[in-house]
């Protein structure tokens, strides 16, 4: 811009600044005075600086990681897919002028819990369990497949192979009978009474020794009365 010494400049930076802002810039400082007066020094230009920079727009980005377990092989008993999800977030800074994006770190790692394969009668899964899975925000979706196989039928008892019977008693080996009494060894009888030794008889009363009679009462002595 130019002008005569001592005159006021009609120039304003506001129009240009607004144009730059539309392109994604933001104002840092505007060094141009609002009431510029031209000086009288023709040897030195009057310089002013307007500082702008690229505007950075901050945003949050989210990402979902999905774990899917497919089940196959059990006919109409086959379970439906088992699905689980975890979500991660991070900060994103976008240069409003160039469109370039700068990414922050994803939020902390997360874990998909272990999943036990459903029990289906008559079928066996090739994987009893899908183990726990630790994933980060950089992970892709997880996909697993569990295949069921029909169990073989239970083998029936073979009628040509009956169970082994209990071992019979051998008739050639009878049980040992109780030992009989030896007739040549009879029991000892009680000792008989010796007829040559009769029992001692009761001593008889001696007739030569008569019993002493009771003393008679004298005639002159009456019996005492009570």
UniProtKB/TrEMBL annotation:
<dbReference type="InterPro" id="IPR041558">
    <property type="entry name" value="MucBP_2"/>
</dbReference>
<feature type="domain" description="Mucin binding">
    <location>
        <begin position="1"/>
        <end position="54"/>
    </location>
</feature>
<dbReference type="Pfam" id="PF17966">
    <property type="entry name" value="Muc_B2"/>
</dbReference>
<feature type="region of interest" description="Disordered">
    <location>
        <begin position="151"/>
        <end position="226"/>
    </location>
</feature>
<feature type="compositionally biased region" description="Polar residues">
    <location>
        <begin position="157"/>
        <end position="188"/>
    </location>
</feature>
<dbReference type="Pfam" id="PF17965">
    <property type="entry name" value="MucBP_2"/>
</dbReference>
<protein>
    <submittedName>
        <fullName>Signal peptide protein</fullName>
    </submittedName>
</protein>
<feature type="domain" description="Mub B2-like">
    <location>
        <begin position="58"/>
        <end position="151"/>
    </location>
</feature>
<feature type="compositionally biased region" description="Polar residues">
    <location>
        <begin position="196"/>
        <end position="213"/>
    </location>
</feature>
<dbReference type="InterPro" id="IPR041495">
    <property type="entry name" value="Mub_B2"/>
</dbReference>
């Amino acid at each position: 811009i130019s002008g005569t010494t001592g005159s006021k400049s009609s120039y304003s930076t506001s129009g240009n600044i607004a144009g730059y802002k539309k392109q994604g810039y933001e104002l840092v400082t505007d060094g141009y005075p609002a009431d510029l007066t031209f000086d009288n020094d023709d040897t030195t230009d009057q310089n002013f600086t307007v500082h702008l920079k690229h505007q950075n727009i901050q945003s949050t980005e989210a990402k979902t990681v999905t774990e899917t377990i497919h089940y196959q092989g059990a006919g109409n008993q086959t379970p439906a897919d088992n699905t689980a999800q975890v979500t991660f977030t991070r900060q994103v800074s976008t240069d409003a002028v160039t469109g370039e994006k700068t990414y922050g770190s994803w939020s902390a790692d997360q874990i998909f819990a272990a999943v036990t394969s459903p029990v289906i009668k008559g079928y066996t899964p090739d994987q009893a369990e899908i183990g726990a899975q630790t994933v980060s925000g950089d992970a892709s979706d997880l996909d697993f497949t569990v295949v069921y196989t029909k169990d073989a039928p239970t083998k029936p008892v073979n009628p040509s192979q009956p169970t082994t019977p209990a071992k019979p008693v051998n008739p050639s080996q009878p049980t040992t009978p109780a030992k009989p009494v030896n007739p040549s060894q009879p029991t000892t009888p009680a000792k008989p009474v010796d007829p040559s030794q009769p029992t001692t008889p009761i001593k008889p009363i001696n007739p030569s020794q008569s019993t002493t009679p009771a003393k008679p009462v004298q005639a002159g002595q009456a019996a005492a009365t009570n």
